[in-house]
Amino acid sequence: MSGALPTELDQALNAATRAPSPHNTQPWSFGVDGDRVTLWLDRERVLTVADPEARQARLSCGAALFNLRLSLRSNGCEPAVRLVPDPARPDLLAEVHVEGQRRSTLDERKLAQSIFHRHTNRRPFLDRAVPPGVRSALNAAALGEGGRLEHLEPSGRYDAVAALARRAEFLQAGDDSFREESARWTGRPPGSVDGVPLTSAAPPAGQAGALPQRASHTNPALPPRSFEQQPLLVAVLSGGQGALADLHGGMVMQAVLLTATSLGLATSFLSQPFETPETRSAIEQLFRDAGQVHTLLRVGYGYPTPLTARRPVASASVGDS
Ligand SMILES: Cc1cc2nc3c(=O)[nH]c(=O)nc-3n(C[C@H](O)[C@H](O)[C@H](O)COP(=O)(O)O)c2cc1C
Is the Cα torsion angle 224, 225, 231, 235 positive or negative in sign? Predict the structure, then answer.
């Protein structure tokens, strides 16, 4: 049975493109055929230096898929989602089609609204602890999507993760190809349809905290500010490895990010350790008893910052679905 009206699909595709992606590269494209949508990895938009195996890009596609599915559900459609492990077409990631109608829940509608408010906040967070009940809600969001969240300080991995992030930032500062790639995608004028605008950059840190500042996302022209000395860090984990696990990890990540947004939390990413070969293998080793570590998120309370723009859905469409 065909259920989706074009408006619901349009809304769902629009919601999908609100997913986060490294440097706002938006490494996805969509094929639409009636009420069937295919999700593809767009190789042209993968960061070849920072993300040579396209793992962060596939996480982003997983987040886009989560938004697409949530938007359809919240609009009363029943989507069937198939993650596609097809070695013959490795860039085809998922197929979604609308099987029928359903009644949306209040929670789904509330979470779906967060799609359009969630954003990366690189500014200092307030000196306000995240209460245990809120932390549990984030854990539940990850579990609900078949993944897991680890709050780093009780796990004892915090210092090691912070050291790897500092090491990676140091290696990246001395790597011309890394710096050139970052420079191509950051410092964009406001309203750019991809890349990170200067208005989303962080102010320089007044004094060094446990985590390094990402040079490519800092605006040295701003007055320095004090950041949290030891921000709350969570690791997004899931089972399995490979392309399918990356896509799934992205869905878990987005479930956590949207839940955080709906609970009034601000979030940002700590990805440097995943972006140099030395620190990437070290971080995987560090979490080997916990599962596949996909990403690290800084979580807290902050004042909202501007949203970044996206390419129009039409420019992320593929003809052949
Ligand atoms: C897998 C992944 C890794 C990211 N890593 C970083 C990072 O290390 N530092 C950072 O400031 N932002 C990081 N981001 C956030 C993106 O830059 C951000 O999602 C993008 O610019 C779009 O902005 P928005 O999240 O505000 O919508 C990452 C996003 C994803 C999905």
Answer: negative
Both 112 and 155 in one domain: the answer is no
Give me the pLDDT at residue 1, please. 40
Contact 28, 54 (CB under 8 A): no
Instruction: Indicate if 91 and 177 belong to the same structural domain.
Output: no
My answer on whether 139 and 282 are in the same domain is yes
Atom 6 (ligand 1): residue with closest C-alpha?
269
Ligand 1 site, residue 186, Cβ cutoff 6 A:
no
Does 56 sit in the ligand 1 pocket, CB within 6 Å?
yes
CATH number for the domain spanning 294: value is 3.40.109.10
Residue nearest to atom 8 of ligand 1 (CA): 271
Least confident of 70-74, 205-209, 292-296: 205-209
Domain assignment present for 266? yes
Q: How large is the average pLDDT for residues 138-149?
A: 98
Residue 151, C-beta contacts closer than 8 angstroms, at least 6 positions apart = 135, 232, 233, 234
Sign of torsion over alpha carbons 139, 310, 91, 8? positive
Residues 153, 239: one domain?
yes
106 and 197 inside one domain: no
Of ligand 1's atoms, which has the minimum distance to the CA of residue 196? 21
Percent pLDDT > 70 in the chain is 98
The residue whose CA is least distant from atom 2 of ligand 1 is: 22
- Mean pLDDT score, 58-86: 96
Q: Is there an atom of ligand 1 within 6 Å of 217 CB?
A: yes
Structure-model confidence comparison of residues 161 and 2, the more confident one: 161
Residues 143 and 257 reside in one and the same domain: yes
Are 209 and 198 spatial neighbours (Cβ–Cβ below 8 Å)?
A: no
Atom of ligand 1 nearest to the CA of 122: 11
Instruction: For residues 284 and 190, give the distance between their C-alpha atoms in angstroms, rounded to a whole number.
Output: 36
SS3 category, 19: coil
Q: Is the same domain home to 176 and 51?
A: no
Residue type, position 286, single letter: L
Domain count along the chain: 2
* Enclosing domain of residue 61: 6-118
